[in-house]
Design goal:
The protein is mainly β. It has a single domain, classed as Jelly Rolls. The chain is built from two helices and 13 strands; from the N terminus they run E-E-E-E-E-E-E-E-E-E-E-E-E-H-H. The protein has a seven-stranded antiparallel beta sheet, with no helix packed on it. It has a four-stranded antiparallel beta sheet with strand order 5-11-8-9, covered by helices on one side.
């Protein structure tokens, strides 16, 4: 759940900006276009935390790690579960239909570009992946997947 939200409406450029303070302490700075595609800079809090697992049907996401490290967890139609630890400068493209989640280490920052059809409402929770990820600790992530 978000604890703070501010937004500026679409201007002549067709872009609006927003800021969200997430329940897990992350701060999200977004630029969203009228077609729903957007750029987001996410900065983690002073403690590492998992985001919420989800899947997109029509949306592609491009993640770049700016600072710190993250753990990217996913599974697709083949039901193969995987986790990859990613450090500054590394990136990943998440195709539609891939269930995914991110663990962001303390003070890490990522950039996300989202594009595709129906981007404003193309987000579905993935409780199955949450069950696999939410209990994994930072220590386990670094020992098993780094």
């Amino acid at each position: 759940m978000n604890t703070e939200f501010s937004e500026q409406k679409y201007g002549e450029t067709g872009v609006k900006t927003s800021f969200e303070q997430m329940a897990n302490g992350e701060q999200k700075y977004k630029m969203i276009t009228e077609d729903g595609s957007y750029y987001c800079r996410t900065v983690a809090s002073s403690q590492g935390a998992w985001q919420n697992s989800h899947v997109h049907i029509n949306l592609t996401e491009f993640y770049v790690v700016q600072t710190g490290w993250i753990a990217y967890a996913s599974y697709g139609d083949d039901q193969m579960f995987s986790i990859r630890v990613m450090r500054a400068g590394e990136h990943i493209i998440v195709q539609p239909g891939i269930h995914h989640n991110m663990y962001m280490s303390a003070h890490s920052a990522i950039h996300t570009i989202k594009h595709g059809l129906n981007t404003t409402s193309d987000w579905t929770a993935s409780p199955e992946l949450d069950r696999l990820t939410q209990s994994l600790t930072e220590k386990e992530l670094l020992q098993k997947y780094d």
